[in-house]
User: What shape does this take?
Amino acid sequence: MRNVIGKPVVGDDLYGREYELSRIWELLEQGEHILMLAPRRVGKTSLMLELHRAPRNDWDVLYVDAEKGDSSADCVASIVATLAADPRFRSRIEAIPFSTVVKDILSRVSVGVDIDVLRVELKNAIGRDWDLAADRLQARLAGLPDAGRKLLIVIDELPVLVSRMLRAGGQRDAELLLSRLRHWRQSPELRDRVQTLFGGSIGLEGVLRRARISGTINDLAPFHLDSWDRSTAADCLAELGRNGNFHLDRNAIIQIIDLLQDPVPFHVQLFFFAIRDVCRRDPSRVSPGLIDRCFAERLAGASGTAHLDHYVTRLEVALDEREYELARQVLSQACRRRDGTTIGELTDLIQRDERTFRAVVRDLEADGYLIREADRLAFRSNLLREWWRRHHARGNGP
Assistant: This one.
């Protein structure tokens, strides 16, 4: 196991997710289509890529990344491009009666072509006729898996795509896309042959609830991916120490996990990386004071912004302007103390617009920012709390 920082991991580098992988395959074998939602950095994309890397017997898996898209044509083009780049399906995709322009594009690109480049070309060719292209693709999907096999199409970051479409005023287009994907799931000819798994790092339920189109996903089986528990995080740190010749004793591991509070896999590995770097790979230099300094300076300090700033951009993508401002005010109040804030301390915000307040808090809980305990709202992650307090809190000094 390597300590991989900043990119998805698969195989031996994917730690502590055996149960989650087993459960996903169990749901798929039962015929479910899955909606996997998780905060960023807990390993959602890694889990999806592992499904693609090591599928169960009799399954073919395609991984489609929708994060860069901004339209329904983008989504359909991404699926077609991924299929066309796969030698298992290339000839059968070329046989689909797409428009002449689309067929010309497919005829001149080779297997293994850069999917992003092909996606852009196909998107431009499909244009407003994306629904016709989707209809023709659907007609061919049932014939893609060989006899006795099933096809799993994994679409990552669908909520980001849908949210971007809604913010651009494309509610009707977004609803049509989600309805088309629902039609695929409910199509008799695709049943038990083609299944889908949609993933996202922002709450799709909240995005669709605000747009009043939640009914387009109510047939999906929810799968919530959470952070590691403390025991798994401790085992991971011990394993990283053994493999990296940088042993951490039990007290050091407990201190690391206590400082993080929420053992987000990426944060655990980032903390290990920072300590090892500061100590110049000499474990004898590790001390409680050094661990505290690494947390304060390397993780929660300015240098941690590159790894944590996505928590701000996620809110900008998921919320409208009014909701975004309210979310920042709630987080600014909650970050002042490790045990958070009481609902009573947020009375002014509630009285301004109670309905919006409750919707925003629900989204902040669902997306892993806050946790509610009795009448208190607190940050799930002490690292995120401390970083937010220093860099984004309204009315707070560092």
